[in-house]
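JOB MANIFEST
job_type = single_chain_structure
chain_count = 1
residues = 192
[input]
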Amino acid sequence: MEQNKLGTKLSIISIILSLILMLGTVWLWRANINLKSELEAAKTSKSQIETSNTQLEKDIATLSDKVNKIDESSTQTKSLQDKTLYYLSKLGDKNYTSIYNNEYTWYIAAEELGKVGKDAIPLLIENLKTKDVYEKSLTFYALQLASQNANVKIFTNGEYINVKSALSFDEKDFNGMDKIVNDWWEKYKGNW
């Protein structure tokens, strides 16, 4: 009987060990499935991250190009402003001229401000307040040239400041020229 009891105990132990082994196998199988799912999710995440990184790199390159263009534009604008202010400061300088064809005077500052066009006009209008006759005459001349620039003619339909006696250097002519300039400015100043 003792042997029978021992056999029964061994059977029970065997069954318990089998159950433990089965539970361990099921647990390992489930853990394996979970690990495979996590691995697939990690691969998907990695792929998504790589795609995002590629897109971010493209976005960064695009933004970098835009910043460079803004910097270039800003530099050009600053350069144009500096140029305009420089030539404006030279309008009263009687030595800031050159001679061409052995007889004609080239008023460098006025000619350069004429090339600037639109951006120079508000500053030239303000500069008409000068008391210096030479500078005021060249300001009228620069306004006449600047108002004929293509960047002004697009909104004036070709109408420009036509002050025929701009280079007369005679104060008596200023009132008539002031009126011509003021009439033109009142008509088009909304474009600035």
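[summary]
The CA atoms of residues 48 and 54 lie 10 Å apart.
The helical segments are 2-90, 108-116, 121-127, 133-146, 150-156, 174-188.
exit_status = 0
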